[in-house]
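Interim report, section 4.2 (structural modelling).
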Amino acid sequence: MWRTLRKYVNIFRVSLIERTAYRGDFLLGTILRFFPVITTILLWTAVFKGAGQSRIAGFSEQRMIAYLLLIHISRMFSSMPGLSAGIAHDIRDGTLKKYLLQPLDMIGYLLSYRAAHKVAYITTSAGPYAGLFLFCSGYFVGLWPDALTLLAYIASLLLAFLIGFYFEAAMGMAGFWFLEVTSLLWVVNTVNYFVSGQMFPLDLLGPPWDTLLKWLPFQYLAYFPAVVFLREVQGRALVEGLLLELAWTVVLILLSRWLFARGLRRYSAYGG
Amino acid sequence: MIRYLRLFIAFARFGLATEMAFRANFLVKLLVEVLWLGILLVFYWKLFENTSSIGGWGRSEYFFFVGCHYTLTGIVETFFLTNCVEFAELVRSGDLDTYLLKPIDEQFLVSCRWIDWSTLPNIAQGTLIMTIALRVMGWIFDPVRFVLFVVLFVCGCALAYSFLLILSSMAVWLVRNQNVMEMWWLFTTLMRYPRAIYEGPWARPFGLFFTFVVPVLIVVNVPADTLIRALQPWFIAWTMIAAALMLVVSRRFFRRALQSYRSASS
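Predicted structure of the assembly:
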């Protein structure tokens, strides 16, 4: 018992030393990360001040800013930095072989790797984000959801993780057909930033665009969890939204599996 | 001086030749830049469908501001950003040694070696937005303001360059600099919006700090203000002084950083 505990205490100690070895860098990065949050809040405050109306696209000032803060939580779950590029890279330089030679499923391996990564990331950044939400707690007065909404919110976030993962994985599979995919990824990421609602709630675009974008999987990466939390979608719409999210998850799982299987037939395992 | 100019032209030609070797990639980069600009414009357009002004800036005034910002960041990205990102990497890998041995000013070599041709069109796009905005608001040509604008715009570029140089020089002490590009992006969000939005109990001191202590808010604000809004002599003077000051400070900072460089792991 004591030995097991000591092992983990040591792991903790080493990780902490590793973290603090770059404390200056870490501190600077953490401080700078708050700048876009601050400017976003100030920008929208100024927009509402000049608007002469209390609601924009159905959002009050308080809810709009709460929305933009909640986007950070959505992205905490759904962002997969470097996943597509990593897969494409493994395909190109032949290191993909290591997955094929072992009794190991590549997508399954990457999924568990990312899940562990996310858990570590969410725990370590919980502190700064708790501080941020405490500082901005004024925007959340009266917005705290009931148990059922909270449950739906957590479900939407977990599915957001899966959609984020399988979408990126499917993108990475493009590496079987194209030698260089980084430029394709830039385009997709740029468009994604917009259509997932990271800049503003999709409702601001007005019909028919918002309706169209709400049928696509991208909204689940940022927009949907946030509006679930804010109870913008309730009852029947909430159930439908979650079902569509589930459906997209299944589609993307099948798509990445299919692309992987098709790709392996083309794969010639050069290099590595 | 002539030597530096010739070197610079040689760097530019080399950069272009490299880019042209991967033409499709280059075209996609251009496409991404255009896409990004389009997204920004849609965003601000949508905002102005719902509001009449942001921090006292009307629609065409605001778009002028956006154009001004876009042009300025285009210049910084084209000429300096890639180089400064590279600098952090050179420090980490120890490859900076090769550069220090060259018979030429280190700061010039480190910050001007590579020209990113793919962001060059951003400068033209930004200028186009400024021009359209001026047309729409019916701006009447005023030579004094125009000259002041050009001078202040150059000051803004000098300020931005100085901040970038300081940020990347920190790599020497912080070693594992998290992506300088990302740091730079985070830092420059401050100059993306009008100064007037820094209103409120905590935002005001925050805005003042970044106007007078770390003068990043004036980078785009003062040139844009000067051309289309009220002339503020004090701010104009401060921008010019700050630009000169920051150029000196950043050069000192860079030299100090080089002195602390340990040339490890080369």
